[in-house]
Automatic annotation (TrEMBL):
Taxonomic source organism: Steroidobacter gossypii
UniProt-recorded name of the protein: Lrp/AsnC family transcriptional regulator
Domain HTH asnC-type: 2-63
SUPFAM superfamilies assigned: Dimeric alpha+beta barrel, Winged helix' DNA-binding domain
Lineage: Bacteria, Pseudomonadati, Pseudomonadota, Gammaproteobacteria, Steroidobacterales
PROSITE patterns listed in its UniProt record: HTH_ASNC_1, HTH_ASNC_2
Gene3D superfamilies named in the record: 3.30.70.920, Winged helix-like DNA-binding domain superfamily/Winged helix DNA-binding domain
Top-level taxonomic group: Bacteria
Alphabetized UniProt keyword annotations: DNA-binding, Transcription, Transcription regulation
Keyword match Ion transport: no
Xref: Pfam families: AsnC_trans_reg, HTH_24
Amino acid sequence: MLDKTETAILKLLEDDGRLSYAELGEKVGLSKSPCWSRVRELERQGVIRRYRADIDAAAVGLELHAFVQVTINSARHTDFEAAVNRHPSVLECFTTAGQADYLLHVLVRGIGELDELLRAEISRLPGVQKVETTVCMKTIKHRGSVMACLR
């Protein structure tokens, strides 16, 4: 379980991962060194997995998000998951309960690239039996805060 200081640190870093330890410490009531120690421990525990920039996909020419439901041969889960983890166009992959086995979030330049991705790549991943795709028309909310989900 996280204490109040760790929760505050995580909320602040999730909002702005570029805060200095001095700034972060000031906001949570710690000096720089204890703040650094807390952050390092959260990293060591795997609570903080990494730091990265939030790139605007459309600004770099990637305009089409799609959600792909994939049903696979049950003996191929390990191979499929390994292939998905290596695939650069798959942003996220989730196992699901329901009609499909997996839900993939893919990102491409446009509909032609999506067609090529589905026909030539996704459908040929290990064990794939069925693919159903939903094309995103407009993003209403882009990745909310994980820490805000804590209640």
